[in-house]
Amino acid sequence: MRREILKYLERNSKINLQELAVLLGSDEVMIANEIAQMEKEKIICGYHTLIDWEKTGEEQVVALIEVKVTPQRNQGFDRIAERIYNYPEVNAVYLISGGYDFLITLKARTLKEVSEFVSGKLAPLDAVLSTATHFVLKKYKDHGAVLVAKTESERMLVTP
């Protein structure tokens, strides 16, 4: 039952409990108790609202920053990750495979703010060896939601 609840909540965190109970063939109170228990156990860590900021007129820059570090003895990557994720402008920190160790997502108002974060806060950390910054130019899909309107095919319809 938990897996099904989580699948629905992941797609729509505002789903009505009564509707969810009907979809799962269960009792509303049981669903509410199950969700409360998963929140208590930190299985559900929070609720997310996906906003298409381009449609609001708000200027915003999204950066993906790859970071290569030297892991610390007896603590590996965890201590470094903690230092990075505690910066308020950091949205996410992922330990990744490949040429870099971390992938950081960051939102800022300007390119300069991103640059200042990288040069003023990230690069000076002792464990950081190098960084590579990429800027998101356009979002097509985010958190499973398509953010662009489907385009009509420009091909002419050919009929016999």
From TrEMBL:
Task: Write down the InterPro entries for this protein, in alphabetical order.
Answer: Dimeric_a/b-barrel, Tscrpt_reg_AsnC-like, Tscrpt_reg_AsnC/Lrp_C, WH-like_DNA-bd_sf, WH_DNA-bd_sf
Name-wise, this protein is AsnC family transcriptional regulator
According to its record, what are the GO cellular component terms? cytosol
- Protein's organism: Faecalimonas umbilicata
Entries under Pfam families matching the protein: AsnC_trans_reg
Q: Which UniProt keywords apply?
A: DNA-binding
The record's section on SMART domains has: HTH_ASNC
One annotated GO molecular function: sequence-specific DNA binding
Transcription regulator AsnC/Lrp ligand binding domain residues are 65-138
An annotated GO BP: response to amino acid
Q: Which Gene3D superfamilies match?
A: 3.30.70.920, Winged helix-like DNA-binding domain superfamily/Winged helix DNA-binding domain (1.10.10.10)
Q: Which domain of life is it from?
A: Bacteria
